[in-house]
Amino acid sequence: MHTDLVAALDIGGTKIAGALVDRDGTLVVRAQRPTPARESGERVMEAVNGVLAELAASPRWGEATAVGIGSAGPVDAAGGTVSPVNVPGWRGFPLVERVGDATGGLPVTLVGDGVAITAAEHWLGAARGHDNALCMVVSTGVGGGLVLGGALHPGPSGNAGHIGHISVDLDGDPCPCGARGCVERIASGPNIARRALENGWRPGPDGDASAVAVAAAARAGDPVAVASFERAAQALAAGIAATATLVDVDIAVIGGGVAGAGDLLFAPLRSALRRYATLSFVQQLTVAPAVMGNDAGLVGAAAAALATRTGAGIPARAH
Ligand SMILES: [Zn+2]
Predict the structure, then answer these.
(1) Family, per the entry (predicted)?
(2) What is the value of pTM for the model shown?
(3) Is the per-residue pLDDT at 166 higher than 80?
(4) Is 48 within 8 Å of 58 (Cβ atoms)?
(5) Could you give all domains of the chain from N- to C-terminal order, each with its CATH number?
(6) 65 alpha carbon to ligand 1 midpoint, in Å?
(7) How many whole angstroms from 60 Cα to the centroid of ligand 1?
């Protein structure tokens, strides 16, 4: 039996989380620092080094045999660099080399954060037992990843499955990525809130104008709030249907804060999916909420590292 551990890093625009993860996917040691996202690239790297140093102080650090990193994207897995949109100090930053140096030469696997959560949901979560799956995060952005033929499919660059930036509205609103009508431009939390405001919804006395507040208004029957969630659900359904039609997945797992709206999102999503996923081989496509929660990024980074090292897919897959 393997007893070795993987050091996992989950790097986002607000926090840098780290853990030592065992072969069951249990986080045995944790560390976390805020991301100094507006500071220089070196300052951000200092925060990563701080997290690694905290992990290395654990008596179990010696059992770590690899490092897995899930990072906000885009990432370049082949080149070992990251250029997170929300961390301007990192453009083509050689994160794999720097983390390798900081960990005494442990092998480092880098994937995008959407790929990492996909690895987690496939290993231990809602996509477990599915050989072909799309997993997504719908929150301030929309990300995703793919499992194809039983194995995580990061693609050569580590970004495959980036469903947030496929266009579902040809002449739609310009997206910060440069395209138009992207899934994210319609379905992310900030865009759900923006659309509700543009159509006349107003926040309550607390001034909360987030998607969470729009969800509360929708539950109370506000038709503009309901319509904004329905539009988001429609965009997600079109993107999911396109993905399923292209690569033949049988489940779409959706997590993130917007998915926390529950049936407010999932009911219109399933309904819209029936209108977009029409060919015989995608009609059985199911949609399920993610179950891995806040640790998905860390568990998934570890899973990606293990999958890369064994070359045989994610370990302990249940069928
Ligand atoms: Zn876009």
Answers:
(1) Belongs to the ROK (NagC/XylR) family.
(2) 0.93
(3) yes
(4) no
(5) 5-112+297-310 (3.30.420.40), 126-291 (3.30.420.40)
(6) 37
(7) 42
